[in-house]
Specification:
The chain is of the alpha/beta class. The protein is 33% helix and 20% strand. The strands form 3 sheets. A 7-stranded mixed β-sheet has the order 8-7-6-9-10-13-12, with helices on both faces. Strand 7, helix 4 and strand 8 form a beta-alpha-beta unit. It is globular. The chain starts with 14 loop residues before the first helix and ends in a 6-residue tail after the last helix. Bound molecules: zinc ion (ZN). Zinc ion (ZN) binds next to loops.
Length: 341
């Protein structure tokens, strides 16, 4: 089954999401939000294959894969200067479909992997001294860093926890958990010093300038600190039922890159980091140091993974579109009042 260019599979939107898109377009029109084309891969190459023409909301933020290294970039991306206003005003209502003030506390976090009983980074903490500062950039309501703080405290560590996020409502919830939190990103959290453990969970794939990000990450870490990076791994799409295995649904305008473990390692090694442990979910732990792994192209592996996911998506779509199933699903939706949203 050949991989198509994904272009028309918008997900149904509720009123809050439609309003967020109207607000987004207005900010774009007024010049408060800017966009820019992506001409070159992070590796320097310009030889791309187009994967999609728009994101899950049918906004024209397509994606393309570098034929040299396999890193997936967008065709156009939000300008770095537009990030604060985008995350403060647009991102959460658009993605979760609710206004921030009416959302439950766990809305501002991507849930850990289903079988993750303890934080992944705990596998590597033996080498740390007993007093640790843990930082999370993009901490949302602080659920993940709060969990790690508790786990480390139970292991006998003395823990100070610091976070930052662009959303003031999410931050307020983090502060209630005892996380010292500041509005902003890397620059703002650096006022707390350096981290022994830095968490970037579902953040790294949102960053518009990887060279700058690697520099900022480097500045936040001691030589023996641990860096935990979690991103939605593209090679794992065949296991991600939350997207219906559908690459179009997986894509969202806020994701400036899609990573596999290999393409993430390639980028991190350019910044002076080596992988200690990682999987294709992707959950990964890096430390400062020269990588022994050579930068390998992940192009073939990623295209094969997308083909497998596309087969699963097609089978699922065929099942969902059987007339009786479709009718009963609509009946259920009507009974639940979802059609009135
Ligand atoms: Zn490349």
């Amino acid at each position: 089954m050949n991989l198509p260019v994904f272009e028309n599979m918008g997900v149904p939107l509720n009123r809050t999401q439609r309003n967020a898109i109207v607000d987004f377009h207005q900010l774009l029109y007024e010049g408060e939000i800017a966009i820019k084309p992506v001409d070159r891969c992070f590796c320097g190459a310009i030889n791309f294959r187009l994967l999609s023409r728009c994101d899950r909301f049918e906004l024209p933020f397509g994606t393309k894969i570098c034929r040299d290294c396999g890193l997936i970039s967008q065709t156009i991306q939000l300008h770095p200067d537009s990030m604060p206003i985008f995350y403060e005003r647009i991102y959460w209502p658009l993605v979760i479909g609710k206004n921030v003030s009416e959302s439950p506390v766990d809305a501002f976090v991507t849930k850990p992997k289903n079988d993750e009983t303890t934080s992944y980074v705990l596998k590597c903490v033996e080498s740390l001294k007993k007093q640790v500062s843990i930082f999370e950039v993009g901490c949302g309501a602080g659920i993940r860093i709060d969990r790690l703080k508790t786990e480390l405290t139970n292991l006998g560590f003395e823990v100070k926890a610091f976070g930052c996020d662009y959303s003031p409502d999410a931050l307020m919830q983090a502060q209630h958990k005892g996380i010292e939190a500041v509005q902003g990103g890397f620059r703002e959290i650096s006022k707390f010093g350096k981290a022994d453990i830095l968490i970037l969970s579902h953040v790294f794939e949102h960053l518009p300038n990887l060279t700058l990000a690697l520099e900022q990450i480097n500045n936040l870490l001691h030589n023996d600190s641990l860096l935990y990076i979690e991103v939605p791994g593209v090679v794992d799409l065949e296991n991600k039922s939350e997207y219906g295995f559908n690459y179009q649904v997986y894509c969202v305008l806020a994701h400036t890159y899609n990573f596999s473990l290999q393409t993430l390692c390639n980028v991190m090694s350019r910044g002076g980091f080596r992988l200690v442990k990682g999987d294709e979910y992707v959950r990964s732990i890096f430390v400062k140091g020269k990588s022994k792994q050579i930068c390998l192209s992940a192009y073939k592996e990623i295209i094969e993974a997308l083909e497998i996911a596309y087969k699963k998506q097609s089978a699922l779509d065929a099942k969902r579109n059987r007339p009786v199933v479709k009718y009963l699903r609509n009946v259920a939706k009507a009974l639940l009042g979802r059609l009135s949203i």
